[in-house]
User: Which sequence fits this backbone?
């Protein structure tokens, strides 16, 4: 893995035809996006049983939009990658799609939407993809235009992957400057894999933040999302034996080889000693 | 692009534009779909919709017939009106054409139902 996607290329280039197709065929990816979208809609705290008009910011190939449709809402999506929008069109998503750059501002009338969600997109706004880009200014332009096109009392929920705390600081400060209240909700804060960041912004004045998932250790639910990854199960298999590459493991392995009749060096005080790390 | 979306779109992100609404439409291809009627949703959207802009848009597309010229009183309970509003807002789609800023004349092309709202660096 060559690191964070937003360090490799601007989003409209990173999400070209091939990547767009890969993204939308990857079932694990789709499952994660679905769970995050459902959580984001939950955090929106929309009135029950009421179809709302929602904007999906960085809608991509429409994975999150489908959750909105499923819950009975009407949505419009904005994305900067025409390849991703093309895939969304192929999948015949219900929402109207727009090709646009969030950092240029949202071109909508005041009060047009009852809510906004964004899944895995906000971190893309923190990088200057062109010489003329000033991330702080683009974030402010984005947030102030978003504030304007949301009806009073509605919310915007962003699931995103912050690179570091200064990025979180940059984002939240521009959002507050634009008039939003709210803050960060971190689900499963103690699990590296399951940890998810949701920026919950409100327009109706200061309100309490929703509670994060996986925080109360007295809960019966496991302290992380039950992933079916093989790696997790494998971690538990070595429970009775010595951890790999330790001195004990090396001595056990040499014994095994002797029992198999293979030529094995005698054990000495140097067996399994710590070596100086190599500079290759 | 449905007419509901057109009704909330502006060009105000461009430099020098004050209101940027409503956007003119020149359509080369229009489609009429069948969309499930949700009276509650339509009723709530009518409060947000700029009705004269909707009429103007429908007229530009040559689909004006049957559109009521104004919002009637007590529309929430007028199913006939709601159904007509639904048809115009949700079932008429611009597939190919251009959206035009009323203040600068700048065109935003619509391709395959998707309006391109990307502005050049010197326009924002």
Assistant:
């Amino acid at each position: 893995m060559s690191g964070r996607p937003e360090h490799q290329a601007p989003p409209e280039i990173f999400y070209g035809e091939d990547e767009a197709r890969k993204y939308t065929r990857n079932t694990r990816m789709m499952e994660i996006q679905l769970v995050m979208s459902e959580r984001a809609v939950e955090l929106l705290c929309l009135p029950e049983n009421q179809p709302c008009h929602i904007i999906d910011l960085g809608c991509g190939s429409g994975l999150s939009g489908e959750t909105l449709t499923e819950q009975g809402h009407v949505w419009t999506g904005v994305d900067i990658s025409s390849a991703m929008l093309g895939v969304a069109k192929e999948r015949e998503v219900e929402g109207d799609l727009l090709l646009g750059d969030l950092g240029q501002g949202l071109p909508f009338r005041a009060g047009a939407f009852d809510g906004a969600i964004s899944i895995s997109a906000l971190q893309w706004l923190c990088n200057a993809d062109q010489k003329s880009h000033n991330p702080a200014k683009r974030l402010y332009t984005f947030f102030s235009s978003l504030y304007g096109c949301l009806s009073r009392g509605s919310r915007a929920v962003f699931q995103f992957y912050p690179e570091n705390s200064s990025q979180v600081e940059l984002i939240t400060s521009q959002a507050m400057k634009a008039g939003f209240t709210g803050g960060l909700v971190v689900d499963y804060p103690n699990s590296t894999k399951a940890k998810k960041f949701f920026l919950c912004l409100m327009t109706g004045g200061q309100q309490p933040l929703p509670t994060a998932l996986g925080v109360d250790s007295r809960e019966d639910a496991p302290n992380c999302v039950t992933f079916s990854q093989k790696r997790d199960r494998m971690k538990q298999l070595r429970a009775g034996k010595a951890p790999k590459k330790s001195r004990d493991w090396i001595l056990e392995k040499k014994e095994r080889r002797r029992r198999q009749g293979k030529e094995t060096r005698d054990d000495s005080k140097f067996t399994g000693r710590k070596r100086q790390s190599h500079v290759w | 692009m449905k007419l509901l979306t057109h009704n909330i779109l502006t060009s105000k992100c461009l430099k020098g534009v004050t209101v940027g609404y409503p956007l003119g439409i020149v359509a080369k291809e229009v489609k009429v779909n069948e969309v499930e009627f949700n009276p509650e949703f339509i009723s709530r959207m009518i409060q947000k919709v700029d009705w004269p802009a909707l009429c103007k848009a429908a007229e530009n597309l040559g689909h004006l017939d049957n559109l009521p010229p104004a919002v009637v009183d007590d529309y929430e309970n007028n199913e006939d009106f709601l159904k007509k509003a639904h048809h115009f807002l949700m079932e008429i789609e611009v597939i190919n054409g251009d959206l035009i800023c009323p203040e600068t004349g700048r065109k935003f092309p619509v391709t395959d139902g998707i309006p391109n709202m990307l502005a050049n660096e010197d326009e924002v």
Notes: The CA atoms of residues 134 and 224 of chain A lie 37 Å apart.
